[in-house]
Structure formats: structure tokens, C-alpha cells
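notes to self, project folder thing:

trying the whole complex as one job this time. last attempt i did each chain seperately and stitching them together was a nightmare. two parts in total, labels are on each line so i dont mix them up again. if this works i'll redo the older ones the same way
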Amino acid sequence: AQSVAQPEDQVNVAEGNPLTVKCTYSVSGNPYLFWYVQYPNRGLQFLLKYITGDNLVKGSYGFEAEFNKSQTSFHLKKPSALVSASALYFCAVREDSSYKLIFGSGTRLLVRP
Amino acid sequence: DGGITQSPKYLFRKEGQNVTLSCEQNLNHDAMYWYRQDPGQGLRLIYYSQIVNDFQKGDIAEGYSVSREKKESFPLTVTSAQKNPTAFYLCASTPESRYNEQFFGPGTRLTVL
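result (full assembly):
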């Protein structure tokens, strides 16, 4: 069965410092991986995805993520954090044979001024 | 939030009442989804539909019903059989492809009084 783990409920970082939000997954086939961001009382916004090809994926708002097949991870990164990036971040995975997205439990990012 | 609208934004229901949440999209997407979001649990799939007049149960379909009479519309009814309906409900849509990200509406917050 597909599953996604986001091991950190919250990540705290100072503005200007690099940030990482962790995600690991489990699927039986090829994984299609996604990151979304959610601001309070809003829907989810798509940030980036990995389907195939280059392991480093670049997305919206300066975010990037690295696909690591051996570690089954897809960590979200940003070289320099902004206060405006404070929000709830979700990792999601879709298996090759399925139309369903499985979401992690979310990680709250807090960027301090 | 793209071309997906959900209404109302806030909804209050008395116990024992059915209530219908609206979801409309003008993106010409084939597939539509309903998720429930509870604190600390990420998003859980209620129902999804890949084409008009067809839909499948997700992981937590009990106490919910849907219809897909038009491509643009995918209303969700929360019935009195749903024992704990207070939650944030999100609708999403995607073009017909496993490679595509889902586009989310702004959500409806349902509170049972």
C-alpha cells in the first residue's frame, strides 16, 4: 500500500537561513511525487512535482526538492527562507497504477524574522 | 485556487440534517475529488470521479454521497449518517493523467452544532 511520512510536525527556521522539510514515501511501483502548500483557511497550492528525469526538481517561490530513490525520500528545500513562506506543507505520492493521491500529515513551517 | 469554486465558505448544520457542499470547475478537467481535512491528519479521500456519471468511493466514504451529472460540477452531500462531520472539506480536479497535479478549491468549513 502507498504511504507518505512527514516526520516533523513543525520546522522552525530563521529568515535567510536554508530550510528543509522532510518526506519519505512507500509505493510498490514508480512514484509520482508532489509538494503542496496551504495557507490558513485556504485550499492547497501546487509547488512542484517529480515524475521522471532529473532528481532535482525546481518549483514555485524558489522551492526545490530532491528525489532520492534509494532512500525513498523527496525532501523540500529552499536556500533562503522568507517569513512569507510560513505555512503548512504537504507531501503527496501517487503510484504508477493509481489515480489516487496519498497525502502526508503535513509539516508546519515557521520562519522567524 | 485556480478555476475551482466551492460554496459556501462556512456552513453550519444541526445534528440530523443533510447538507450539500458545492464544487464547480471551469478548467475542463476530467477528474474531480473530495477530501476531508482534520487537524494533524492530512487530507483523506472521500470520493472521486474520473468521468461524468461515474464515481468511486475513497478511503472514508461512509456517511457521504456524490453525483457527477456534469463535467463541471461534483457536489458532496454530508448525510446524517456521518457521525463526526465537523471538518474542512476540499474539492480538487485534474486533467486525465496520472502525471498531472491536482488543483484545489478554497474549501468549505463545516461545523455541526
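what i see at first glance: The interface with chain B takes residues 9, 32, 34, 36, 41-46, 49, 51, 90, 94, 96, 98-101, 103-106 of chain A (CB under 8 Å).
need to look closer tmrw
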